[in-house]
Amino acid sequence: MCFSTVASTRLLSRLASILSAPCVLMDVFCLRAFQQIMSVKRAAVVTSQNNAIRLCANRELPLVLQKHAVGFLNCDEFAELLQTSRDMGALVRVFLRTAKKLDLTFAAKHWPNNGDARDPARDGRRRELLSAVLQESQQLRDVKFDIEQIRPLGSLTPSFEVQLVQRNQRALRSLSVAGPNRGLPNNANTAALATALASCSELRHVPKELFQEKSILGIIQSCKKLEQLCLHNGHSTLAALALLTSKSHFKSLELHHHVELLPRVAHAGSITELSFYDLSLTTLQELAEPLRAFNSLAKLKLWTSLVNPAIAIRAVKWTLPACTSLDLWGECPTIDAPQLTKLKAHSVPAEPAAWLVGN
Predict the structure, then answer these.
(1) What percentage of the chain has pLDDT greater than the value 90?
(2) pLDDT digits (tens, 9 = 90+) for 7-24
(3) What are phi and psi of 315, to 5 degrees?
(4) Is 26 helix (H, G, I), strand (E, B) or coil?
């Protein structure tokens, strides 16, 4: 069976699953569509003469259902369908024009950096798909990709990810990076990507690798809806202060450094997730009072490597009235979290009863 037939068969299978799902409210026409697809005599087929998704020889499935079915395919299946026929290729392009979410990570077994041999035919299909994405997409809100997969498919100037952001700058909300070596290379492309993202007024989430001082300052100044912030030792105190006191209503704050600036956060009440790393005993004590201002904090992540006596650490008390989730590694202070429903405690020497109260 050739790749085009396999992709088409998968598409029809996904379509049948959609129409048969109990959660789908189908009208009479949709029900007939499902019955005809499942019928032996009138099954939807893909041949060289009939390449659209049809109920019968002269009747196509409604476009809205075709697009919904295509939305369940992975990107390798997209690449196959794009070359199956003119009709199928057109359907993929129609989907890309209105898609709000797109995952461009190819099958794991085909990652070029895990010893898998290059496949010119497969690479050609993937290259054509990326080209179609750049040509058609304009409404993407959420995008996920792996640079290590895209780079070997051919050099693009400007780079693929920069072009993709520029094409969807009015709608883009989230950009995430996947892959075995998660992250963006620290080069000119990364700087260009940060510049492109700064033009996305709806942006909420960006890869952590873009939280370099020069990159993130530009993004923060332009993207007032950004919901996450990550500070590390690469940020100067002035830059960290500028970020924490910006007008952005962050929901997630991750501090690897400059924890002492936490009381200066402009909109503490809007933050629902907070992460701390390598805090000293003194810092634990200093944070007890400022944390009271984070009255919407639902999730706390705390990683420590403290060597102080446990009695000194337990003497510190954090009050987290709205916290429902704790993720802890190492020694922790006494935590008052009456709303807690989820607890992860890694390498915490004492039992929760020794440091968790109010729950």
Answers:
(1) 34
(2) 656 666 665 665 555 444
(3) -70, -20
(4) coil
